[in-house]
């Protein structure tokens, strides 16, 4: 099966930056799209950002637009999430996912494979 491993989480101060990484198995490189989701305690999992493997086109949730940047390295089968101007509201477990490029970018159902998540805690 396809495996995704997130890393880069930790405790940061509000206003600081952090970069998350998602290392994918080679088969994941054939998936159409990679995405980042997050889930805060007591809340539903929400979409953060996505990127297409083929052309690098991106899509962002309004809550992170202008602050977060998703990118990919096809040769390394790795996806990144650069998080700037972090807010306490960004505190969550961040999940990497892989799925179809044909589905809606922001829908959970578009993504078939999921990582275990990495915790990001933003303190004020």
Chain-averaged pLDDT: 93
By DSSP, the count of extended strands is 11
Shape: globular
Radius of gyration: 13 Å
- The residue ranges in which pLDDT falls below 50 over 5 or more consecutive positions are none
Q: Give the SSE string.
A: EEEEEEEEEEE
**Helical segment count:** 0
How would you characterize this protein structure?
The protein is mainly β and 124 residues long. Helix content is 0%, strand content 50%. It has no helices and eleven strands. Strands 2, 4, 5, 6, 9, 10 and 11 form a seven-stranded mixed β-sheet that branches. Strands 1-3-8-7 form a four-stranded antiparallel β-sheet, with no helix packed on it. A hairpin with a 6-residue loop joins strand 4 and strand 5. The radius of gyration is 13 Å and the shape is globular. The protein starts with a strand and ends with a strand. The mean pLDDT is 93.
